Amino acid sequence: MSSPMATPQSALSALTARPTLRGHFEILRVDHWFKNVFVLPGVVAALALDPTNRAPHLWLRLALGLVAICVLASGYYTLNELLDAKFDRLHSTKHTRAAAAGRVHRPLAYLQCVALMAAGLALGAAISWRTAAALAVLAAFACAYNIPPVRTKDVRYLDVLTESVNNPLRLLLGWYIAGAVLIPPALLLLSYWMLGAYFMAMKRFAERREIGDAARTGAYRKSLAAMSETQLLVSVSFYAAAAMLFFGAFIMRYRLELLLSFPFLAWVMAQYLAVGMQPHSPAQAPERLWREPALMIPVAFCTIAMLLCLWQPMPWLHRLTEPTIATQQ
Q1: What is the pLDDT of residues 127-184, one digit of tens each?
Q2: Number of other CB atoms surrounding residue 155 within 10 Å
Q3: What is the CB-side half-sphere exposure of residue 224 using CA atoms within 13 A?
C-alpha cells in the first residue's frame, strides 16, 4: 500500500507562515522524552550486578540525570527538525511540523539547540564527569546523524545503527548515574544496541511500506531509497538474532537467572513485529507506543520478570544448567 506524499502547497505555506512561540516549543518534542525511560535499565543493572555502585542521594542524581538527558534530547530534536524541514515537507503528515511549516525563526532555533545541549551537559557535569561524558557522546552521535557532510541518517544501514546507538548510551548514562565507576559489560551494551537497532529497523520498514515506491521513499529519506521491504525485514531478523545472542552470552557470564526472562523478552519482540506489520503502523511514532496495550502488556510482564531474576538468587537453575559433558582442559 502507499500513502500520498505532501502536496506542493506544503512548501508554499512554509514560505508564508510566521514564526511563533508555540512553534519553538513544538520542536522540543517533549512527547519524545518518554524514550528516556531506557536510562532506567542502566541504573537497575548497575545496582543489581554490584550493589556497591549505589551512590549517595541516588534519587536526586536520577532526577537530575533524567532532566539532563531530556534537555539535551530537546536540543538535538531541535537540530533534527531544522535540518530535516525540507524533507519533512515531502511527507504526508510530517509536513505539518513546526520547522517544515515555517513556524520557527531558524537563527533563533539554532541558538535554542546550542543552549539546550549546553544546559544538558552542565546538568550532567553536576552529577559526575562520567555522566557528562556519556551525554557528550550522545550529543556527538546526534550531530553526526544529522549534520552534513557526515549525516549518517542518509546512509543505508548506518541510519539504523547510528540512531540506535542512543540505546546503549542511555544505558551507560543510567549506569553512571547509579554511581558506577567502571564501564558496563560489553555484552550488555552490544545487546542493548542490537535491540535498539531491531526496533529502529522495524520502524523504517513501516515507513517504507507506508510511503510506497522507492522513488518517493528516497525523496523523503535517502537511506531507504535503495532498500526494499524484504531487505529491511532481513535486517530486522539480523538485529533480533544479534540482540538475543549477546544477551544470552551476557546472562551466562553475569546473571544466569535472567535466562527465565527470555520468553518474556521474545514475547515483546514478537509483539513489536506484529505492531510494525500493521497498516499505518504505530511503530512509525515510537513515542506513542505506550498507548498500544497489546505491546505494553508483554513489556510489563518482561520488566517484572527481569527485576525478579536480577534480585532473586536461584541455585537450582545453576545446578540444572551445569555441564553434563566433560570438557578438555
Answers
A1: 999 999 999 999 999 999 999 999 999 999 999 999 999 999 999 999 999 999 999 9
A2: 14
A3: 27
Domain map (residue ranges) of the chain: 18-183, 185-312
Of 168, 171, 206, nearest to 286 (Cα)?
206
Burial environment of residue 260 by CB neighbours within 10 A (0 to 12, 13 to 18, 19 or more): middle
The CA-based dihedral angle spanning residues 259, 34, 227, 247, taken in that order and rounded to the nearest 10 degrees:
-10
The CATH architecture annotation of domain 18-183 reads: Orthogonal Bundle (1.10)
Q: What are phi and psi of 313, to 5 degrees?
A: -65, 145
Residue whose grid cell is 515510537: 286
Return the exposure string of 203-213: e unless at least 16 CB atoms fall within 10 Å of the residue's CB, then b: bbbbbbbbbee
Cα–Cα nearest to 178, from 48, 72, 307, 71:
48
Q: Cα–Cα distance between 75 and 118 in angstroms, integer?
A: 9
pTM above 0.70, yes or no: yes
Contacts (Cβ under 8 Å, ≥6 apart) of 256:
314, 317, 318, 321
Q: What's the gap between Cα 178 and its chain centre? A: 20
Residue 320 CB contacts under 8 Å (≥ 6 apart), including other chains: none
